[in-house]
Structure formats: structure tokens, C-alpha cells
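During the reporting period the student researcher (J.K.) took over the structure-prediction task from the postdoctoral fellow and processed the backlog of single-chain submissions. One of the processed entries is reproduced below for the supervisory committee.
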Amino acid sequence: MKTAIIFDCEFLCLEGSQRRFWCGAHDPDPVIAEIGAVKLGLEGEFPILDTHKSYIKAVDRFGGRYPLDPYFTDLTGITEADIEAHGVALQEALSAVDSFSGGARFWSWGKDEMNMMAISCYVAGIEPPIPARRFDNAVKLLLAAGMPIEDLAKTRSSKLADYYGVEHPPFQAHDGLDDALSISYTLQHLMRIGKLDPELFDRP
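J.K. obtained the following C-alpha cells:
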């Protein structure tokens, strides 16, 4: 079965980092601490076939472990205990999600790969193992399905399924896997009702 990988990343921040573009004196580099991914079937009933989650032991430019700011923990629910118990090195996390993908294209709500690959790999001093051509922006899929551009601009990934009235289990916003599931349930719904052509997932 043809598949697509819908993914979402959570990356380090302090309160206000986003409006400062991570340029404040004490802002961490926006490196990833979590990857959530969903394998979505592109045939038949467009099933959700599998899910994946990795916690990453994020490091700074000198190889030291970044501590999690309380604001980041409040926002994402990710704790130091989660990282200590389940966290892996960035290289291992990227290899794992690449293996999970089976070579399928990755889609996020925006361009999460810029934090996942470009910034995180640069800071960690490793070669990005997944090329840029394997990533794409799910926003253009929703645009093709008829979502008004003004709604696209103000709808977060965690609210997409609610926007379309799609039934789903409870989601926690800013959880990588839950945000990826919200996008996945939405794309699944749009393909099932004929609003989204699954062939769009294969086009450049």
C-alpha cells in the first residue's frame, strides 16, 4: 500500500521565543526534543497504519545537554524524566523515523523539517540523514482540498480535526504525535469524502 508519513516536532523554547525568533540572549537554539509520526495509507479506506514517537536528548553547540525550561514543559507536557527515561541522541531518532517511513514522503503542518534536520543537525554537528526532497508542506494539501486560505493561516495543527468536525480521541496540543494525528485524521477524512486526491501526495 502507498503511504505518507505525517509528522510533527516539538522544539526547545522559552516563553516569548517565537516572537523573538529565538534570538533572545537566553533563548535556546530551536532544536527538537520530540518527533511524532503517523503512517497514513493512501489507498482503500486510507487507514492509519502505525505511529511512532521519539524523545531526543537535545544538545547545544558545545555538546552539552540542554535543560528543559518549565515553560516548555508546561507547553508540551515533556519532562526531564521523559527525556532521561526515553530520550535518544538526535542521530538515533532520525534513523528511527527514517526506518519507520519506509521511504515514504514526510508531511508536516508547515516546515518542521527545518528544525528537525537543518537546525538540529547543524547544532549537533551531524550530516542530515534525510534529504530535503523527501519533505513537503501539508498546508498545500488542505489548500487543494478547498480550505480557505484565511482559515489556513490561523488554524493550528492540533485544531485541524476539530475544524472539520472529525471525531477523534482526546489530543494534547503541542504533543508531537497528537498533532500529527490531528493532521492525519483530517487528511484521511478529506480523502474519504473525495475532497483530496491521494495522488497529490506523490507530486513535487
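The committee noted the following: The chain is about 35% helix and 20% strand.
J.K. will present the remaining backlog at the next meeting.
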